[in-house]
Amino acid sequence: MQASSWILCGVVWAAMAACSTAAPTTADPGYGPNPNLPAPQKQLIPTVNVAKANPWPAGTAPVAATGLAVKAFATGLTHPRWLLVLPNGDVLVAETNAPPKPEDGKGLKGMVMKAKMKEAGAGTPTPNRITLLRDADGDGAAEVRSVLLENLNSPFGMALVGDQLYVACTDAVMRFPYRAGDTRISATGSKLTDLPGGPINHHWTKSLIANAAGTKLYATVGSNSNVAERGMEAEEGRAAIWEIDVASGQKRIFATGLRNPNGMGWEPGSKALWTVVNERDELGDNLVPDYLTSVRDGAFYGWPYSYYGAHVDARVSPKNPDMVAKAVAPDYALGSHTASLGMTFSDGTTLPAAFAHGVFVGQHGSWNREPRSGYKVVFVPFDGQKPAAGALPVDVLTGFLSAQGEAYGRPVGVALDSKGALLVADDVGNAVWRVTNATVAR
User: Could you tell me if 204 and 101 are in contact, meaning their C-beta atoms sit under 8 angstroms apart?
Assistant: First the structure.
């Protein structure tokens, strides 16, 4: 095909994608412990339904559920994505975005998608810093703000072990000395271990959590593609959670087949590791649900060969029935294309009793579904050590989409602060929101 023909095809694809003529679907069935999954839909042109990012109008904020209240903990940040609450109550915020990825998104389709992601607020140059927020007077808003670390490489996950702060950058876990009360770390830091990165680095975010003993770190690494269309060689070490020895930096793969795991947490009763995972695209508006799941050592969760256990993805070649037979079905579906990223267990919260035991999930929001999904914070109630049977997610914080379908904000990381309130990082709204019990001061 001549270059002019390729350009014409690209223009047509972009125009159709921008208009997104797909008919509205029925309610997404992909929620709960046993989602009713529809048949895959072949899409000649994938759905693109981006919510254009616009600032929060003056005096506005997200909408808290009945019995809850919300206010800004901090505003004027630059693309805040992830949170860590320190033992002294200080809050660390990763102000960050994707690094340069010269080999990702090439071609006309890649160019169009980059333009649409910029429209959605994902085109902000990465600030590459960790900012410390401190509510010194206890009024529920941070009046102290300091750059704790800067000149990092797309930092994301953070974990404190003793007097060492670990930061998962896009290609490595870095270690820095930390003393309680520090507002600035001037030390250069040292590399604990490398993580898969590179010139493609399709899913660039790397989350991080430490075990209770502080001897191991767990890092998430997303896939380098949608469904291994670049070949499995490009997926070496990816779509996985890595276990890292704190003392030596040596690492091993803990679990695989997780397309794009992000937030992690330890279930308080069983002490099992849980994560939220973004699933694959281009199988229709109602496939494939993102999910919340416990993670077993050595387990395989399906990607790319299958989803939700034995549901084979016919697009993947060569097929691998042996791996499909091993695939573990997730514990709980979070809706298709919701971009569920942040998670934290609620035990210890001071929110009302209905939120006492379960998981808060930050849903960044869809860009490829009609109608849109996500763009909110939800709560998954647990019964014992698992999501409650038949329970659907409960809205906690909404209002991130305007009536005109514009994105005032997009929630990402979530964490409980030292008073049991819920903090939510809003990367498009450039804020951290604080959700409290409406009947309890602060």
Answer: yes
